[in-house]
Specification:
232 residues; alpha+beta; Gyrase A, domain 2; Cyclophilin; 2 domains; four-stranded antiparallel β-sheet; 5 helices; 13 strands; 32% strand; elongated
Length: 232
Amino acid sequence: MEQIFKTPRMRLMGDSGLLFEFGDVIAPEINQKVRLITKALEQQMPPGVNEVMPTYRSILMIYDPIKTNPKTLARHLDDLKNQLEGLKLSLPRTVEIPVCYGGEYGPELPFIAEHTGLNEKEIIKIHSDPEYQIFMIGFTPGFPFLGGMDERLTTPRLKTPRTQVPAGSVGIANNQTGMYPVDSPGGWQLIGRTPLRLFSPENKNPFLYAAGDRIRFKPIDQAEFDQINQKK
């Protein structure tokens, strides 16, 4: 049974990793707690910790086993919980992402229609209606894992992943949706593509969004796609 843990579950990850799990379900309240504790850790990084990596429902600490140990880190995390009340996260932004659905940009749209029993226009409307929360960013630079997709669109991943997915591709995998910021391998069912450049490493802030922000997809046609693409 999926649940939210009253106290985090601690797991050893090799000889220099410690994972704290706050639940076994993807939920906004868990993710908010993860982001709050991550912010508190970044402000008071425990001695010996080299990196803190938040996910949907957990935090991974990469530490130097010569300088610290799991017992000390667990005690530090427990102390931090009492300091979260006055800590505030940045207000989320809503970032609009134009998407050209179907055709060469969304080769799996017909399969998703067959799998779900919806027609392609219904899929596009259902996919572009919500505002999606960014639960975490990972896999590749700027890849947003989005929560809040309508369950009617749930579709399994590709049986055989592609060796390369074009940057800007928008896809579905099981009950999630997301975007590929760079060319990379991937197994998500592709339904469209955005002409926006999602990752610009030469910029001081290379991403258009951050964990906790919201994404809204805006359907566009080929002419709009080409117009935006020319401005990049």
